[in-house]
Specification:
Blueprint lengths: L1 E6 L5 H8 L9 H5 L10 E7 L3 H12 L4 E5 L15 E3 L7 H20 L6 E2 L3 E6 L3 H12 L5 E3 L1 H7 L9 E6 L3 E3 L1 H14 L3 E4 L13 E3 L5 E9 L5 H4 L1 H4 L3 E6 L1 E4 L15 E4 L4 E4 L7 E5 L17 H6 L5
Parallel strand pairs: 2-3, 2-12, 3-10, 6-15
Antiparallel strand pairs: 1-13, 4-9, 5-9, 6-8, 7-8, 11-12, 14-17, 15-16, 16-17
């Protein structure tokens, strides 16, 4: 089960994430494990303090360090914690985003950076090239716009009509008039381990990582330091808050009442023994926005992943109950 951030104003999720960043994923003791020596902050102050070691915070810290900045990355929980939006077994990475061609280009560049990192650290298995299948039906303007964006960005893809879809993926029940966009080079990131690899590489390159809980900024004017709950002062020339569902608590004056974490349930279903229909390459990562579900094939023997993409009820990422609900399980396409 994961917590998703919902906004008070109507705003595209990708726009929101690109503006604020997501999640808090931790890596305790990574400096020793990676052999990094770290960069001492001049006069006790860093160039940048990044709060939140999820996908956005981890990559921000790594890229800032690559640019020669002294960086402190802070997170409040342990490694790969289950409370964060960037945790979990896997995440889809795709190029189809409707008419928003900028996100097609953004995601394509992002996948290239992930693959470069995995090659550099010797972890190619953290990207699974399952392909991504976007299923739809009839006259879907969003899917049609995606085809145009993929063409414009020269992203490899196929348009599969109903007959081709049934033939290529017989294990999928295709509705009348159904068709799909298939991206053969897209797939799934092994989310928890992928973000851990980014943090470890940032530390190996000289960033510092620390487990600490940051208090909301106090006072007026330019922010020069953040205090932790243990009383430590974290000084920097700039601060990046990549706190996902905790943003409203870390920056309450700016964002309180605008950040609403919601509950999204993710299920893994065991596949029949000796049956390879639900593993890659037979089954790709798939999305069916019409039904509101997406899923991934059986990766590393973890089972067939299915999740509902719609917003659930309000959720406390620190204290919320994470027991799967019968209703959400029953609504899964695998139970229909």
């Amino acid at each position: 089960m994961i917590a998703r951030v919902r906004r008070a104003r109507r705003q595209d999720r990708r726009t929101f994430l690109g503006t604020l960043g997501v999640s808090t994923l931790a890596l305790r003791g990574v400096a020793a494990a990676a052999g990094g020596q770290g960069v001492s902050a001049a006069g006790g102050s860093f160039d940048v303090v990044v709060v939140g070691a999820g996908a956005f915070g981890a990559w921000t810290a790594r890229q800032l360090r690559a640019a020669g900045k002294s960086v402190l990355l802070v997170d409040q929980y342990g490694p790969a914690n289950a409370r964060a939006s960037s945790s979990g077994e896997s995440r889809a990475i795709r190029m189809s985003y409707g008419a928003d061609e900028i996100y097609t280009r953004f995601s394509h560049r992002s996948l290239g950076l992930w693959k470069e990192l995995f090659a550099e650290v010797g972890r190619p298995e953290l990207f699974q090239k399952t392909g991504v299948l976007w299923m739809t039906k009839g006259d879907d303007p969003n899917a049609t716009a995606s085809l145009r964006a993929l063409e414009a960005s020269k992203i490899e893809h196929e348009r599969l009509d109903e007959a081709a879809l049934r033939k290529r993926f017989p294990q999928i029940v295709v509705i009348g008039g159904g068709w799909a966009i298939f991206e053969p080079e897209s797939g799934a990131l092994m989310a928890r381990r992928a973000v851990q690899a980014v943090v470890a590489d940032a530390v190996r390159k000289g960033a510092l990582y620390r487990v600490a809980t940051v208090e909301p900024p106090a006072g007026e004017g330019r922010l020069e330091a953040l205090r932790t709950t243990s009383g430590e002062s974290l000084r920097a020339g700039a601060f990046v808050l990549a706190c996902g569902p905790w943003l409203g608590r870390v920056a309450p004056r700016a964002l309180e009442g605008r950040i609403f974490p919601t509950r999204q349930e993710v299920f893994f279903f065991g596949v029949p023994k000796g049956d390879t229909r639900f593993a890659s390459p037979a089954l790709p990562t798939w999305i069916d926005f019409g039904q509101g579900f997406y899923g991934m094939p059986d990766l590393e023997g973890r089972g067939l992943k299915i999740a509902n993409d719609t917003h659930g009820p309000a959720f406390d990422p620190d204290k919320g109950e994470r027991t799967p609900s019968t209703g959400a399980c029953s609504a899964s396409p695998s139970r229909r």
